[in-house]
Each structure stands twice: as C-alpha cells, then as structure tokens.
Amino acid sequence: MTGAQKRFWHCKTTHYRITLRPIYKVNRYLHFFLGNRTKSTLERMPTVGLINSYAVKFGKADVAYFGSLTWLFPILTKFLSDESIRVISDRFDKKFNVKKSAFKFTMKAIKS
Fold this sequence. Notes:
Blueprint (H helix, E strand, L loop, with lengths): L2 H7 L2 E6 L4 H12 L5 H5 L4 H11 E8 L6 H4 L5 H14 L8 E8 L1
Antiparallel strand pairs: 1-3, 2-3
C-alpha cells in the first residue's frame, strides 16, 4: 500500500446528528419510548466533546456543522419548495456560527 493509499484509507467522512439541540434530544427520546429507536441510539448520541476528542485522536480533522434549521423543515414544506428551503438553510448556516445549533456535522479525519 502506498503512502497516498494509506492516507486515503485513514481518511473518513461521516455525517452525524449532534446532540446540542434540545429538540433533537427530545425527539430521539420520544422515538425510543415509541419503540422506533433502540437504547444504543441514546447512548451513542455524539457531542461536541466527542467530536473534539476524535480530532485529537486522529491528529487532523476538519469539521463542518450544518442543518440548524432542520427542525423547521416540516413546517416550511407547507408553503415553500424543497429547493427554497435548501437555499435558506444553506445561507443561514453560512451566515451564522451554527456549531451550537447544528443538527448535523461532517468530519473528515486523517490519522497522522
């Protein structure tokens, strides 16, 4: 395996929902009590601390937070198109620091 292949092998991009949002936590617990989620999904909810620990563990990690308006989508779909909602959400995420209000994140970690 070449150096480039090893770097690619250790490079992982992952999408997760993060647990900073109280709405997200309540939703996950609600679905657990309704039988739609398992207990392990409650135990494995990622936090900013966990994300930061992965960055330290891998040595280099680029993290992008997004989706702070995801909880509004069911309401917005009543009077806006999917494309309009996407544009609004993307602009909002770019304009404001959504780290603490993000529903999702992408992490690209490269093991050094």
